[in-house]
Amino acid sequence: MSWVVNICFLLVSSGTLSALPLVINTWAFRKATDKAWQTLHSGSSALDAVEKGCQQCEIDQCDGSVGYGGSPDERGETTLDAMIMNGDTMEVGAVADLRRIKNAIGVARAVMEYSRHTLLVGESASLFAQNMGFISEDLETNTSLSIFANWLNKNCQPNFWRNVSPDPLESCGPYKPAPGLQKRERHPKIIIQNHDTIGMIVVDSFGHVAVGTSTNGATHKIAGRVGDSPIPGAGAYADSTVGGAAATGDGDIMMRFLPSYQAVEYMRTGMDPSLACGKVISRIKKYFPSFFGAIICANSTGSYGASCNRLPQFTQFSFMVYNSSVDGSVQNVVTCI
């Protein structure tokens, strides 16, 4: 009997063999990996590959957590965050709370190439995008509107409010400060069922590194919330003299530690990518033992690794790799610490 295995599971540890070029991204978003590889293989730059790979996830609405039609905020609107970084020049372009524009990673690159700024947000970011030729269109879908309607029917539970009145466990607000309610909270968990980011690292044959992220953020977030994804050093970071890193998970916690920047700095000392990723996760875990999150790391010679925080419902983390040593993209699995 003949058969073909389409997914290869690998337990990644320190000492992963180097091979360039390399594409690595969070989660089992295979079409995004393949698109980035095809772009790179066609002769385009690492930066082009990151943009096209992340854009593929926006088009595919990867798991409902990237692109249009997912993760409505508490007003029912889907908004997008994205970032792209050139590890050769240390230039960054990013957008946050982007409205009505589907290609968030493309707008982020436009910020980098057509402005002297790093991050644009909200309605002004959308107007910038329209001026750059991006099409304005509705980001809501029947799916996202249904998610929002079901949430309203449950008295807006769970939500991200605390220390307010009326009681955020029993109502939809509007809210006012009420410190006396600080013990009554029900946290909306950021878990594997609603993870919120594609993070991608690309290293070309010459060791040039680029990274990117794209997300529609946390479901039922307070309008205007920005997570870690568009923040340089938090959602992703690249330095072609060292490597790159990208994070995924509970951005409100992870962004406080600049995990992607820290991982690159650990690799700068010569640390193996897997060890660098693990050290970053351990650092966050010291303060927030039950946080949900993971990080991928790659150095400029093509070695890579990943790490994640172990939770009852999250014991392994999947990520995609495509390099010159394999014939096709490969799904890797790392056991959480």
Architecture overview:
GO terms for molecular function: N4-(beta-N-acetylglucosaminyl)-L-asparaginase activity; peptidase activity. This protein is α+β, with helices and mostly antiparallel strands and 337 residues long. It folds into 2 domains: 265 residues, 4-Layer Sandwich (Glutamine Phosphoribosylpyrophosphate, subunit 1, domain 1), CATH 3.60.20; 40 residues, no CATH class. Helices cover 26% and strands 23% of the residues. It is built from 8 helices and 14 strands. The strands form 3 sheets. It has an 8-stranded mixed β-sheet. It has a 4-stranded antiparallel β-sheet with strand order 9-10-11-12, with helices on one face. A two-stranded antiparallel ribbon has the order 5-6.
**Estimated share of beta-strand residues:** 15-25%
Number of separate structural domains: 2
| Total helical segments | 8
CATH class annotation of the largest domain: Alpha Beta
Q: Which class best fits the helix and strand makeup? A: alpha+beta
Total E-strand runs: 14
Q: Strand arrangement, largest sheet?
A: 4-3-2-8-7-1-13-14
Overall mean pLDDT: 92
In the CATH hierarchy, what is the architecture of the largest domain at level 2? 4-Layer Sandwich
Distance between the termini: 39 Å
Q: What's the SSE pattern?
A: EHHEEHEHHEEEEEEHHHEEEE
The CATH topology of the largest domain is Glutamine Phosphoribosylpyrophosphate, subunit 1, domain 1
The gyration radius over C-alpha positions equals 19 Å
Tell me roughly what share of residues is in helical segments. 25-40%
Sheet having the most strands? 8 strands, mixed
Shape designation: globular
